[in-house]
């Protein structure tokens, strides 16, 4: 599939999806939102893809929503607009317009190469792992635009940085840099700008080779179910997953490759 507002590339088990509106600092309009959605599910369905990297072209990851790109629409139309893949058998929480990344079976690494603001921060929070260039600037932005926290940020941000830190970042709308984001737990690692790509792909390729696709899928599902579970429910789910995992081909290959001291060759997403 060809795209106009994103770049899509797969190599060494890693698919890179790049927001590609550099002149607009990769701000989001209807077209790029729809193309990103399609590309994410394309990568998720691709057996050659083990890990997804999301980044931005130019000097920004994503500067937020492009107000001009949503022109002529009422707030109600924006709230109800899709794309989304709605499955009545799956949790609805991760089937909204922007916050569908937890439903992807494959891990998503956010490679935050520059300004990450507003809706751009929502997408960063939806990534499973976040690496940032040390000069990356963050802001929730909403309070300084007369807006509420949009698309679930008020739910996600406290889970990542804690209640008090989330309120401070939301209410002030202030800018902060990657080293502070690391201290807050918003990003996992910070690298010099000229090392971000190298370090991110070293990490992603190691995951693609050494980690079972089925295990990563199951682990991701377990973690994203936690906000809705009691401890007893989490343990019960883990016990069920353990019984199935012990019978799967990836477990057999993981055990065999460990004993034989060789690189694993995981078959992938079997049950």
UniProtKB/TrEMBL annotation:
Claim: Lyase is one of the keywords in the record: yes
The keyword Cell wall biogenesis/degradation belongs to this UniProt entry's keyword annotation: no
Superkingdom: Bacteria
GO MF assignments: enoyl-CoA hydratase activity
InterPro entries cross-referenced by the UniProt entry: ClpP/crotonase-like_dom_sf, Enoyl-CoA_hydra/iso, Enoyl-CoA_hydra_C
Enzyme Commission numbers on file: 4.2.1.17
Record keywords: Lyase
A Pfam family of this chain: ECH_1
Family: Belongs to the enoyl-CoA hydratase/isomerase family.
Protein name in the entry: Enoyl-CoA hydratase
Organism: Oryzicola mucosus
The organism's taxonomic lineage, starting at the top: Bacteria, Pseudomonadati, Pseudomonadota, Alphaproteobacteria, Hyphomicrobiales
